[in-house]
User: Fold these one by one.
Assistant:
Number 1:
Amino acid sequence: MCGLPSNVYLKEVGPRDGLQNEQKWISTEDKVTWINMLSKTGVSEIEYSSFVHPKMIPALKDAREVGKRINREKGVVYSALVPNMKGLEHALEAGIDGASVFMSASETHNLKNINKRIPETYPILTEVIKEAKNAGKIVTGYVSTVFDCPYEGRIAVEDVLSVCDQLIESGVDYLSLGDTIGTAVPTQVEKLLKGLFPYFPKDKLILHFHDTRGMAIANIMTALHMGITRFDSTIGGLGGCPYAPGAAGNVATNDVLYLLNGLGIETGINEKRIQEASIYIQNKLGKTLPSRSVAYLKNA
Amino acid sequence: MCGLPSNVYLKEVGPRDGLQNEQKWISTEDKVTWINMLSKTGVSEIEYSSFVHPKMIPALKDAREVGKRINREKGVVYSALVPNMKGLEHALEAGIDGASVFMSASETHNLKNINKRIPETYPILTEVIKEAKNAGKIVTGYVSTVFDCPYEGRIAVEDVLSVCDQLIESGVDYLSLGDTIGTAVPTQVEKLLKGLFPYFPKDKLILHFHDTRGMAIANIMTALHMGITRFDSTIGGLGGCPYAPGAAGNVATNDVLYLLNGLGIETGINEKRIQEASIYIQNKLGKTLPSRSVAYLKNA
């Protein structure tokens, strides 16, 4: 445990991780309007879509058009999920500052999610990472189920370490460690980070929490105390994971922001604009978003 | 920051703090059935009702009958809120192990909540505390708005200290420090506890969080690290505060339990029975309770 950082970098993953598991189709025009609103919030990075095959995630089948139509705000990093060379090609065409590849620390989750065993996944990602780096892009490696897997249970720190090692070896700039099913408690965060710190600089590690059991804010607090300064979050807490049964959406950007503001940690984000962007997508989805802050500020 | 405690004492305040702000009337029979279910969960204490004037909190106007009809489980402490001598008389008649008096660290909140200024409140409470102690009861002093007040904003640690001092002086066994409007972040918890620790033993302090902005679990985590071992919580997170606009219910017992189980901290509580008692009251209230765990386990 050390002091708290003075600044935090928030990556808004709502347009990707949020929307990919929502049932309701959001039109390309509404997505573009919404992402343009997000661009004005002051958030550091926006993962604006996923370039996986449209059949896999129909909700994001318009990734190319979204990428071409959104306004790029100066100072905001625009990234997208890319599963393979075809996805990267489309993403580069649509315009990205960052490419995110993904795999799982759990063999079974990896198999269910991307239909490949872990060792078979490396060569594919390595090619993508290399090509993205050649194109001058920032590359993030998402590692799913770093704490618990819905199929395998508790995941050993060594398994996470091994996947992280390979990804860094392949050239990723950042590792985003995912509590995919939202089951971790702060002592698990502490244990994992202690296991990774001897091998990776803290500023290369991003934490990505889902909030299934309401533990995400406490987990972020622990990570902040341990010197982590990058987090993924989703406006209003929308989303989930189609391949992790029962999992809820990411921790809400609104709640993370409330925490960070309260702690006096700078994010550059305007809370009012976050609320406006939350209400916009809440209305489009036609359902109440899980963030307590959205409901609170709406009724205040 | 120190290690984590091995045991935690949870006081279930759902039948009092939870129900007092719910609009829907729960019949005496249903309350009794529900409290009997709570008694079988393994929770350390149940605050079963409030003996304030029925006009003030109509939802709990049957406190006397509830107290007389519930089964008393061995090892469970049954307590109730008592505002004055009349309330205490009724509570003693109905049967209590513990009496809880209450006031606010904020002058304005105290005035709005109990229609008295802080200095005028002490003599009334002192008489109740003395009488309850004479009757051999455990006495807890609730101190509301210890972090922030909806009318006065940030509350100074000195103001909390002063109220706590008077209550301890008057003979209370425990102080329950309330984040009445659920706005605190972990650094506020740390600051307040550091301010109180030189004057009061840690094991006399209870923390009572509302979860308006989703910070309660992180706040509890901080308090645990600082050696606090007693917390108030409410099944499913039901409730609120009629005199603190916008405030949400207490932190959900279900979520606290998930945290504590994950940390390996013993509570003696059976998670399945907590879920059953949550579903029971959720059905009676006819609305979804805010705890993420209730929804998660119901769908699992």
Number 2:
Amino acid sequence: MGETIIRIGIIGCADIARKVSRAIALAPNATLHAVGSRSLDKARKFAAANGFPPHVKVYGSYEALLDDPVVDAVYVPLPTSLHVHWAVLAAQKKKHLLLEKPVALNTAEFDHIIDECESNGVQFMDCTMWMHHPRTAKMAEFLSDEQRFGLPRYIHACFAFSADPDFLKNDIRVKPDLDALGALGDIGWYCVRAILFAANYELPKTVIALRQPVLNEAGVILACGATLYWEDGKVANFHCSFLSNLTIDLTAVGTKGTLHVHDFTLPFQEREASFSAGSESSFDDLVTKWDPQPSRHTVNTDLPQEVHMVREFSRLVGAIKFNNGKPEKKWPTISRKSQLVLDAVRTSIDSNFEPILIQE
Amino acid sequence: MGETIIRIGIIGCADIARKVSRAIALAPNATLHAVGSRSLDKARKFAAANGFPPHVKVYGSYEALLDDPVVDAVYVPLPTSLHVHWAVLAAQKKKHLLLEKPVALNTAEFDHIIDECESNGVQFMDCTMWMHHPRTAKMAEFLSDEQRFGLPRYIHACFAFSADPDFLKNDIRVKPDLDALGALGDIGWYCVRAILFAANYELPKTVIALRQPVLNEAGVILACGATLYWEDGKVANFHCSFLSNLTIDLTAVGTKGTLHVHDFTLPFQEREASFSAGSESSFDDLVTKWDPQPSRHTVNTDLPQEVHMVREFSRLVGAIKFNNGKPEKKWPTISRKSQLVLDAVRTSIDSNFEPILIQE
């Protein structure tokens, strides 16, 4: 097979790029080839601060990196409002695309991105790291087990963290021209993805935003929530907030089983992660205790979840580059579904909390 | 002080009365004096099946038990539709009242009950056992700690269990003439109480039922949910269902802390119970793990929670009977708040999911 290492470029020196650059270094089938920023100085400082080896190129513009023919794929951690421009350009330059979430400001923009990815034959994957943790596969096993879990009936997700005053004033995620979806795009994204995950990626029929969302002066969402309804009677609730203590919950209640996880986007510890699974839970005869009780499942991993992500992305890119493979459609498909639900929540907020039909 | 043992009578031989009669036997300040059923034969069988000692009287009618002058207090596990009649009569006969939940079919009925309790100087307490578990006091300590928890911002509760076909056909909780509130009254009650508990018993301003409640042919609720809104921006969601795997969750997210408990109405085990508490939770610098992580708090108890309940009820009754005390108003007050929220959920379901203002 020869060379199967995928050469990745990073455009944008966001904080999260520190973690992903480490993941690229740790992934056995990827290597960091270049980093590009709006200024050469910024790119150099980022490379130095993160201890990049000397062979990593630094570029003073995103275009220059995209024009480097050695770059197979780019990781794009730019503010959401810039995604459509740079993701489209990257695809046009035949660069495979690992794009930060939320993937776009709305589905129309995202469709532009995936159209370009499709017509240029490049792999698209969003940067939802927890999807790639081996625990997630174990949870999916449980959720798809008709005997242990049955059919999902109720799903709940919550992602909150307590942003400090500087974040609430200056972070790109509270700026209407950079990340207009605010908390909904940043952490509501994970709630929506988790709900879709637990619903086997079946889109809800209707979405209704909760009332009393918290917006900043510029109209960016700092806290909100929504209820999702499926035609088969399934219901999901989520809440996301920049204004409460760090909380990352997913609960899925099925006809026969229940799943609980309290750190679904980022495990409490890097090398092991667990979840609780109850099946046909019940009380004893006199209703004094549970019998059986839920059990705890722990999954160990040598690699952090973001390394699993980069490895899977690079594997898919390698299959295209070296084995004439086709891009895997699963990833853009679930990105689009996530974005469709985000759009509906935003529309419901802007429409006096009316029910919004999801149209695929 | 002399005799301080409270003599309790039970009217109605419901399943749950088995557990409460055991609790009365175990409570150091209470004794089971009598049991009454609609037939003497049924009362005798219940006494025999539960191994009541020979001094426990059996009555073939509820009236006869209420007319026994030795009975200080009655425990009433009758179907909800019968509460107002028998609770009022008990209060008029000066019997202190331990009443099963939901306390009434609606707040108007409940007001009739507490009016009679007040004018007759008897103690009222509903039978929400978990309120009396020592773990609940520990959780209340955490939730009221401004440093560790801050102010509540989001609360989530879920109570589901998987009812078998016989229950769904024959149980009093699915009969419109007996327990018209169905799952909302039976287990939604606990969700609402838990939410109020986490909100320091502050009533929400508005309640909106979730769409797609499941009703049986007679219109009794088998599954439903609601969102509660407070004027200060707090939001709560709950879901209750007879149609999913046993799940009993309370999550409270505050500005500084988060509480999780997965068995809040009935601990997994009888002698120990735990909850998880996170405070100022955060990630490490590179966002690879939580630092600090939430901690687990375990509370041991020699007595099951229902014994704590009977002991507290009997203590309050004893204070009235032997020490010229006044009835403790906390208990009827929080019962009434719970009922007000249940009423609003039902009204919202019956009003096409319109927001319902809570009027105290």
Number 3:
Amino acid sequence: MLIESSSNPKVKKWMKLKQKKYRYQSNEFIVEGEHLVLEAMNSNVVKEILVKEGSTVHLNPAFNGKQPVYILKENLFTQIASTETPQPIMAVCEMKSKTIERHNRLLLLDRVQDPGNLGTLLRSAVAFGFDGVILGDGCVDVYNEKVIRSTQGAIFKIPIEFHSLKEYVPMLQANGVKVYGTSLENGQPLGEIEEDSQMAFILGNEGQGVNPELLSTTNRNIFIEMTQNIESLNVSIAGSIIMYRFRL
Amino acid sequence: MLIESSSNPKVKKWMKLKQKKYRYQSNEFIVEGEHLVLEAMNSNVVKEILVKEGSTVHLNPAFNGKQPVYILKENLFTQIASTETPQPIMAVCEMKSKTIERHNRLLLLDRVQDPGNLGTLLRSAVAFGFDGVILGDGCVDVYNEKVIRSTQGAIFKIPIEFHSLKEYVPMLQANGVKVYGTSLENGQPLGEIEEDSQMAFILGNEGQGVNPELLSTTNRNIFIEMTQNIESLNVSIAGSIIMYRFRL
């Protein structure tokens, strides 16, 4: 079906999906580019496929013909896309929440604000066999297009839950999970932390780190050994170094 | 001095510094925000300070009064800045090349394209005591404002050199430095790589990795142990995990 008018109700809906509020109202989000669309198809979350008029796209082998495909005039396609020079395919996906089933390795995020950092942390969490990621209050929306792009498809591969960390941390501890904060002060060096069967790591805001109140409730706090020459590491780097060290 | 007109030759010059070509012609680049300006001052590279009219900025303790301070009308200041809502201070800095003096730990970058990745790699290189970073052909310009912002000031703290890696790698090897590529295939797991007194690590392009020709000339190639669930790690993550492992 060729869509040519910006007053088409579908176009209006897709445009609205740029706003977080509307994404959660409709339980949908958009991914862009062949790689992410394919990952979304493999995860059975694709509801609609949007293709730029006149372009050649490869949908095999995951395309099963069940989802409607809309061909859009170039200017409409570009308006809906978030990137300046978008690849010619997008997919409208359903938010499908997977529940975290094991609690052997968890990543807890406290007010991580940068989309690239959140996306990269999700990508590393998948790479290192983590069981799930918990987003505390104040994190950037995980269905933000920049976050999704940075995950490189990892968003479809790991359970993500939303909890208040103040309540979630004691709940984990009551279930035998050791919770580790990250802090530049008063922590133990990563190299001295021993492996445990159930570990959860809290990474914090880019400027302020983990909320001190939270840090006071953890089992231990970790710092990553480094020179005095710099104040801190990027949060996605710090988190990934820790996840690599305790990968499953 | 208050500058109000966009036809002021200074304003024209500062605007041009957004272009790579002009940065290298004039040997200057701009940093934005209090933190980076302070780091630049501590490194003695500040030539001019730009302040937005009507704003309060803190220059102590590094400000020595030697550099001219220009007060700019808000619209001019915003035009020169790269960020959408800039902090009210910028500095024009001199490119000062430091030479790499030791070759115990080096990071070699082959066509790293994303500004955030390059900046983050520089930040981690400083954090883990590396002696220098070599930018091969095809990397994003290190004086790009986004790169500088991602370094969080690390750009002033580590020698950066520009070389053709094809020529530089054999030169390092002839001087006893062991050179390690990174590759998803045919590499050795990071955990099995033994420390050496002189090590250089090559990280590659976001999509294509390290040039295969280069990989065939290294002493060894490394891969980072991870699940089969994902294709690769972000390059700044991979590089930082390796640098942490072999930090000095």
Number 4:
Amino acid sequence: MKPGQWLIKVRDARPLVHNITNVVVTNVAANALLAIGASPVMAYAHEEVADMAKIAHAVALNMGTLTPDVITAMRLAGMSANTYGVPVVFDPVGVGATPYRNEAAFLITSSIRLNVLRGNAGEIGLMVGSGGQVTGVDSSGASADLPAAMQMYARQHRTVVVATGEEDLVTDGDTLWRLTNGHPLLSTITGSGCSLTGLLGAFVGVVDKDSPLTTYAQAAVAAITCFNVAGERAAQVAYGPGTFQAALFDALYHLTADEVNEAAKIEQMD
Amino acid sequence: MKPGQWLIKVRDARPLVHNITNVVVTNVAANALLAIGASPVMAYAHEEVADMAKIAHAVALNMGTLTPDVITAMRLAGMSANTYGVPVVFDPVGVGATPYRNEAAFLITSSIRLNVLRGNAGEIGLMVGSGGQVTGVDSSGASADLPAAMQMYARQHRTVVVATGEEDLVTDGDTLWRLTNGHPLLSTITGSGCSLTGLLGAFVGVVDKDSPLTTYAQAAVAAITCFNVAGERAAQVAYGPGTFQAALFDALYHLTADEVNEAAKIEQMD
Amino acid sequence: MKPGQWLIKVRDARPLVHNITNVVVTNVAANALLAIGASPVMAYAHEEVADMAKIAHAVALNMGTLTPDVITAMRLAGMSANTYGVPVVFDPVGVGATPYRNEAAFLITSSIRLNVLRGNAGEIGLMVGSGGQVTGVDSSGASADLPAAMQMYARQHRTVVVATGEEDLVTDGDTLWRLTNGHPLLSTITGSGCSLTGLLGAFVGVVDKDSPLTTYAQAAVAAITCFNVAGERAAQVAYGPGTFQAALFDALYHLTADEVNEAAKIEQMD
């Protein structure tokens, strides 16, 4: 299925994506989901996250502004999602920056089965054990053996692994995709990675139950491609980061399946 | 008093609106209040909410991202507001989506006297007992007897009740208003309902003390009309949700009393 | 060093600024830092703030939406910053509005050595003991002896003191600068003060270690001037607060050293 067809599927289903995300980008992530045609909900209370995750089409967890309460909320939502077959996307924002973030990422990934693990190249390098460098929440480099380590991790944990950056890598442990859409302005605004995590939730949220992992990977490839093509469109009318942010929501809203399919730069590596 | 005259009154008084709102929309709600000419303050600490509510012109409570701490903060702020005669607006975001939200809405409405209860048609249907459907935080329908149930609830609780949607219903238990301004783009951005809740605070915040409930209802009608006419203006220059959000703040800022009075579509039903 | 040269220094160093700020403006503050060329990180957990502050170039503390947890996070981050020689900027948002805010500002300033204290004229008046009026989070006036009181406070606490408003005052206890760039639209959006607090972090974050206090004051003067000149540029293309916000990020991003140096209105008073 081409990426544009996934976009149509998302718009038809209007999947409910339960986000537990950071306070920096909640508004942006919600607007990105609305713009693409999904239905975002943010809920954090331990008293309700299991109920909310159960009725969602996907759960998107982002550890940008972590606290012990948020970790617990993520674990409760994730366990509920696992129980009811709701896909889970996890974004280990800033892992490697502090010991606490490393512990949190370990706690979350050891108690929840993920469908997609997404981060920048530095974060994913650290998660999959190929090394990497994270300063604050910025990646400052990945090692050459990242793709191989991602594939190993994906196979061992039976999850899709996504490393985004100038180029984006996606793997289900078997196939590796290299995606080269996007625009430098995407890295001048906060929340573009976190918005993508939400979109990944929307796209894997419309995968038919009992599909093989490779179908989730294709949905992830489609989500990233849609987001990055929207970024390219937005850059055409933006003067800087502020107008780019507004134009990005406009572009997500108006994006068509044909536009995505024509612009898509997806390379299947093996 | 026409809606435009209420707008002038708000701009003259620059009412301080104490918001306890959700983390998705705090920025948007604050900017909407600034743009219309009010003064927003957000404060959540149990240690200060009673003090802040006491000096405010209105308190706007929104349970979008609820936690036990937030519920307590709302109750403390609301009790203080009730004690000092400060009007309270309550927005039961996502009621019906989880049992926890139902409990929270019950706890809040049973301990605080409201001046305005506002939600989408699904939320209000659940609050007033006419039924309704809420998925995540989206309303997916209201029953035909919503207006009658709203009037009953308004009379019993002596509060204005507002159900927003394609058309907006307002009642003080006696009169029912049907408002038909607005634009579909308002539902493509997060926080438009929550911003309106803040604006309702600003408008009821300038009602003279000891006014009858019907005066609060008129202030509510004016707030909704101003917001929706601004939405119509914004839609004329917007290309999609991103540019619409920016244009909406611009429109609120430049909105004139005459413009509102001319564009207003307000029908008094009985 | 001229303000434009400080801008170049910031862009070269891309300083990591650890923000503990309020939930209203986190997104805006992060985007302002990205736009100017710095690297923002937001981290609040008691378990990690000391680690994050230690690796940052500056720590920016803002008490906009205060809770006991946030106060503790600020103190832990501030103590770590003091220990490792990382500059600290503190913004006592809304001090004077409630007793709790006064207590919090006292607790924070008594346990952390600041490099820059920044607020609006009302907040700073209260902090430095010259009096002032704060309603909610808006300043409504400063006393005539504010500059003298600021200088006294700066000398006693060995910190730069900044009072922003229609004109901005900066002092290191010795010299007093009066800055008159800026635009009225800056006060129509929420978070412009808080964004400036973040930028102050970025600029003092590139001051060479063991520099005298006056160098920090010069960095502060540069940060304010860059921000306000960007505001002037943004106002030229904005129609209202919404488009101004977007244009402000664009302007920060495209701001050049020459542009700042030419537009700068900096008066050294004594």
